[in-house]
Design brief:
- The complex is a heterodimer of chains A (265) and B (162).
- Among the domains of chain A are: 1-49, 2-Layer Sandwich (Uridine Diphospho-n-acetylenolpyruvylglucosamine Reductase, domain 2), CATH 3.30.43; 170-264, CO dehydrogenase flavoprotein, C-terminal domain (Enolase-like, domain 1, 2-Layer Sandwich), CATH 3.30.390.50.
- Helix content of chain A is 33%, strand content 25%.
- Chain A has 11 helices and 14 strands.
- Chain A has helices spanning 12-21, 34-39, 75-80, 82-87, 89-96, 101-106, 109-115, 122-128, 142-145, 213-221, 246-264, and strands at 5-7, 25-28, 47-50, 60-63, 66-70, 132-135, 139-141, 146-148, 151-152, 160-166, 170-177, 184-193, 196-202, 210-211.
- The termini of chain A are far apart.
- Chain B has 162 residues and is an alpha+beta fold.
- Chain B has 2 domains: 2-77, Roll (Ubiquitin-like (UB roll)), CATH 3.10.20.30; 86-161, DNA polymerase, domain 1 (Orthogonal Bundle).
- Chain B is built from 5 helices and 5 strands; from the N terminus they run ββαβββαααα.
- Chain B has helices at 23-30, 86-93, 103-117, 123-129, 141-161, and strands at 2-8, 11-17, 49-52, 55-58, 71-73.
- In chain B, β1 and β2 form a beta hairpin.
- The radius of gyration of chain B is 16 Å and the shape is globular.
- The termini of chain B are far apart.
- The chains are: A alpha+beta (265), B alpha+beta (162).
- The interface between A and B is medium-sized, with 28 and 28 residues.
Chain lengths: 265, 162
C-alpha cells in the first residue's frame, strides 16, 4: 500500500468539508473493498476520510411504507434487523449472502453502492426496489444513480447519507455466487412494487447493474417463473471472464431470474 | 504518522504507526503478538481474524488507526492463564488442526459464531459460517466437530451458572 493520510471526521459536515478540501481523497466506509484495492496498489488516495464512526450515517428505520437504511449500516446489521426481515425479507437475505461473516461485520451498504462493483449484491436491490439514494446534497432515484461499471451519479464532493427503500408487495433475490469470492456471477433481484414489476441484474452486465426490461414486461403479464421461459438474454452486453463467458452468464441470468420469481411467490 | 492507543487482550497499548499500517501488522510487530497470522493477505483466508469491540474482523483488512481507541482480542487473549478457552480445548481434544496456521483465525471465528448462535449451532450452520476461513490441511471435519463440541460445552457452562 502506498502512503496515505488518514482523517477521522466526527460529523458529516466535517467529512464534507474535508472531502472538498483534501486532494485525491477517498471516503473509507467499511474498507472491505477499498483497503484490499489499496493493498494491491490499484487505488492510491493521498487522503483517506474515515466515515466509520459517524453515528448519523448508521441505523434502520421503518415508517410509512419505506425502510430507511443509513449508508454506514453494516451488512450484518441489515441481515439481522428484525425490521428489515419483516418489511423486506429479500433485502435481509441479500445482505446475509455478501462475503463472509467477518466481511459482513465491517462492510457497509453505502460503501458497496458507492463503489458500484459490477458483481456486488446491493446495487441490484437498490435498482430492483427503485430506492432513493439520499446524499449530503440531494436525492437521486436509483434509475438515475448507476451509470456503468464502478461509475455512479455521485459527484466528487458527494457522500451517501442513507437509502430509502419502498416496501414491495413481494420481492426476492437469487444469486449464483462465484465459489471462491462469493461475488455474484449473476444475481437477479425481482420486486413487485407500487410502480410495477422491477427486475435488476448484477454480476453479469459489462456496464454494471441493469434492469431486464423483457422480464419486467413478461412478469407484469404473468408473475410466474414460466413467464421467463421464452425470453433470451442478449449476451452482447454481458461480462466474459475466466469464471464464465457471456453466453454462460446469459443463461445464469435467466435461471436466477426464475429462482427469484419462485422465491418471491 | 499517527499515534494510536487501544486495548489489546485487556492491556492498554500505544504506538506510533504509519497511517497505512494494517491492524494485523500493528498487532504482530508493534505489540509483539504473533499468534494472529497473515495468510492470503487478500481478505479471503481468515487466518488474521481478531475481535474488535467483540466482533470478528479480518485484521489484514483494517488499518491500525481504525482500531484506535477500540478493544482488540487476539488468540493470545482467550485463555485464562494455563486454562485454555473451551474452544481452544475442543480444538485440541478433537484434533481440529494439523499444521496450525489457520487455527488462530478459526478459533476467533468460532468464538464469535458461538457468541451469536449459542447451543443452536448445527453442523450445516457451522460449515456455512466458516466460509471466511480457509484450512489447507484437515478438510474441516475436525474443526467442525470441535466447534460443535465447544458450543455444547459452553451452553452447558452457561446453564450451570444460571
Amino acid at each position: 500500500m502506498y502512503q496515505t493520510t488518514y482523517h477521522r471526521p466526527s460529523s458529516l459536515s466535517e467529512a464534507t468539508s474535508l472531502l472538498a478540501s483534501a486532494s485525491e481523497a477517498k471516503l473509507l466506509a467499511g474498507g472491505q473493498t477499498l483497503i484490499p484495492t489499496m493493498k494491491q496498489r490499484l487505488a492510491a488516495p493521498s487522503n483517506l476520510i474515515d466515515l466509520g464512526r459517524l453515528d448519523e450515517l448508521k441505523g434502520i428505520t421503518v415508517s410509512g411504507g419505506t425502510v430507511t437504511i443509513g449508508a454506514g449500516t453494516t451488512h450484518y446489521a441489515v441481515s439481522t434487523s428484525a425490521d428489515v426481515k419483516s418489511a423486506i425479507p429479500a433485502l435481509a437475505k441479500l445482505a446475509s449472502g455478501i462475503g463472509d461473516p467477518h466481511v459482513r461485520y465491517a462492510g457497509t451498504i453505502g460503501g458497496s453502492v458507492a463503489n458500484d462493483d459490477p458483481a456486488a449484491d446491493y446495487p441490484s436491490a437498490v435498482l430492483g426496489l427503485g430506492a432513493t439514494v439520499v446524499t449530503n446534497k440531494r436525492e437521486i432515484a436509483a434509475d438515475d444513480f448507476f451509470l456503468g461499471m464502478f461509475t455512479t451519479a455521485l459527484e466528487e464532493d458527494e457522500i451517501i447519507v442513507k437509502f430509502v427503500f419502498p416496501v414491495p408487495t413481494k420481492a426476492a433475490y437469487a444469486k449464483f455466487a462465484n465459489p471462491a469470492s462469493r461475488y455474484a456471477m449473476a444475481g437477479v433481484f425481482v420486486a413487485v412494487t407500487s410502480g410495477g414489476v422491477r427486475v435488476a441484474v448484477t454480476g453479469a452486465g459489462s456496464n454494471g447493474v441493469f434492469r431486464w426490461a423483457d422480464a419486467e414486461r413478461a412478469l407484469a403479464a404473468n408473475f410466474s417463473a414460466s413467464a421467463l421461459d421464452g425470453l433470451t438474454v442478449d449476451s452482447s452486453e454481458l461480462l466474459s471472464d475466466i469464471h464464465g463467458d457471456a453466453a454462460y452468464r446469459a443463461n445464469l441470468v435467466k435461471v436466477m431470474g426464475k429462482r427469484a420469481v419462485t422465491a418471491a411467490g | 504518522m499517527a499515534s494510536i492507543s487501544m486495548t489489546v487482550n485487556g492491556k492498554s497499548v500505544t504506538g506510533t504507526v504509519e497511517d497505512r499500517t494494517l491492524l494485523v501488522n500493528f498487532i504482530r510487530e508493534n505489540v509483539g503478538l504473533t499468534g494472529t497470522h497473515v495468510g492470503c493477505d487478500t481478505s479471503q483466508c481468515g487466518a488474521c481474524v481478531v475481535h474488535v469491540d467483540g466482533i470478528a474482523v479480518k485484521s489484514c483488512t483494517m488499518l491500525a488507526v481504525q482500531a484506535d481507541g477500540r478493544s482488540v482480542t487476539t488468540i493470545e487473549g482467550l485463555a485464562s492463564g494455563d486454562q485454555l478457552h473451551p474452544v481452544q480445548a475442543a480444538f485440541r481434544e478433537h484434533h481440529g488442526l494439523q499444521c496450525g496456521f489457520c487455527t488462530p483465525g478459526m478459533i476467533m471465528a468460532a468464538v464469535d459464531m458461538i457468541n451469536r448462535y449459542g447451543a443452536n449451532l448445527d453442523e450445516a450452520t457451522i460449515r456455512h459460517e466458516l466460509e471466511g476461513n480457509i484450512c489447507r490441511c484437515t478438510g474441516y471435519h475436525n474443526i467442525v466437530k470441535a466447534i460443535q463440541a465447544a458450543a455444547n460445552e459452553m451452553a452447558g457452562l452457561t446453564q450451570a451458572a444460571e
